[in-house]
Every structure is written in C-alpha cells, then in structure tokens.
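Entry 12.
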Amino acid sequence: MPNKEILKLRKKLDLLDDHFLNIIKKRTVLVTQVLKNKKYKKDIIDHKRIKIILKNIKNKSIKRKIDTEITRKIWSSMIRAYIDFEYKNFKKK
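Predicted 3D structure (tokens):
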C-alpha cells in the first residue's frame, strides 16, 4: 500500500513542476528575444556572463540556505541547454 504522506508530497512536487514549466516558458521567450539581438554565432556564449551568473546563484543559494552544489548543477545544465537552443535557433541576418 502506498504511503499517503509520500503521495501528498508528490502532488505538491507535481504542482511545483507545473510552475517550473511556466517559468521555463517565460525564460525561453526572453532568451529568444536576446538571441534576435545577437549578430554573430560567436556572441552566443559569453563566458564572463556565465561566471557572474553562477557566482550570483551561489551567493543567493547561501543566503537562502540551499545546497550550492544543487543550484550550481541546475544552473549549469540550464545554461548549457539554452546555449544549445540558441545555436539551434540562430538565424544569420
């Protein structure tokens, strides 16, 4: 018999996943707008900005008492995914 507490918690996780999907949609729209303003494929990866983003996420994670390894992995993966998205969708003007 399934644990009722686990089932309740999983429903809450499912709701959070729905929120994440909405946020990812909004982020994708913004990334697409940024991409439209890039002239060259070489502009897609900005190592300096990536370093700043990861540093900011680490600091914010510490303040919120979130395991920094988790947030670093999530953001690094998301950044890589959006870099792939930008390369796939880049249209030379």
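Annotation: The helical segments are 4-36, 47-63, 68-89. The domain at 4-89 is CATH 1.20.59.10 (Chorismate Mutase Domain, subunit A).
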